[in-house]
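>> received
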Amino acid sequence: MNNDSETEILIAGVDEVGRGPLAGPVFAAAVILDPARPIIGLADSKVLKPQRREELAEKIRERTIGWAIGRAEVEEIDTLNIFHASLLAMQRAVTALSPAPTMALVDGTHAPTLTCRVRTIIKGDVTVPAISAASILAKVTRDALMCDLDREYPGYGFAKHKGYPTLEHRNALTRLGVSPIHRRSFTLVRTRLAE
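>> returned
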């Protein structure tokens, strides 16, 4: 007797957000889309307006077979470097998925070590809906945390720039010094610490 649930192929899209910022964790998401409940408008999170990202993130949480978030903390970024910390966040996202995927499609050229089959896709967040969904979910989740951290560490403007090295952020770093959530392994932060 053929058991379809045992042979079903579950493909997860995987993407990370937050490699470039000077502060905060790096996040990743893994999403298994449900073909029976399509989500219209999925795209690379960077080209979507914040409100549209929020709307789509809500649909992703409601309509997918499974989704999960992974993150690597600032201390892990400083210990491992941002590249390996990003892979760790992606690995954590996929590992947390339920049901577990049979294959992962990962944005970019590098993938974490996973127990399922893996394929990397350059610009996958543009061309693969499941990766677009992961991109959106990871960005919305990280942005929300940075808004929370803005209240905890006022003056840096985290709610606005989300930790990226904007002029406002660099000026705040000079004015206020390095906060506990800054990535000390990043050159701009390391330079500020040395001054």
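>> Residues 53 and 136 are 6 Å apart (CA to CA).
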